[in-house]
Amino acid sequence: MELDRISNLPRDLAEKILSLLPIRDAVRTSVLSTKWRYKSAMLPHLVFDAPQQTFADVVDHVLLSHIGPLYKFKIVKKYIYFRDMDRWILHMSRNVLHQRVHTRTTGKSL
């Protein structure tokens, strides 16, 4: 039987690896082992940069399942609906945000 090396990585290293992945891939790591099931939910830096149509649903899901401190919340999107941004800011105001929120639009906010 092979040794499960990925599950035995130091916590800081595992978080660093996950933080370098696109959010979708970071969430997918939850199936690697039981030790990794909630690691993506504890990421302290959330960067969303995706063109998909269900973008707001993905952000909602990640925020609702997030555990622990949040040091960065960044969205890079052409258009952001004010109602979505309001909901995300409200959620973060109820769950301690330690540092900063970034939004960058390449188009007009709706």
TrEMBL record:
Q: Which SUPFAM superfamilies match?
A: F-box domain
UniProt-listed InterPro entries: F-box-like_dom_sf, F-box_AtFBL13-like, F-box_dom
Q: Where is the F-box domain?
A: 3-58
Domain of life, per UniProt, equals Eukaryota
> What is this protein's record name?
Putative F-box domain-containing protein
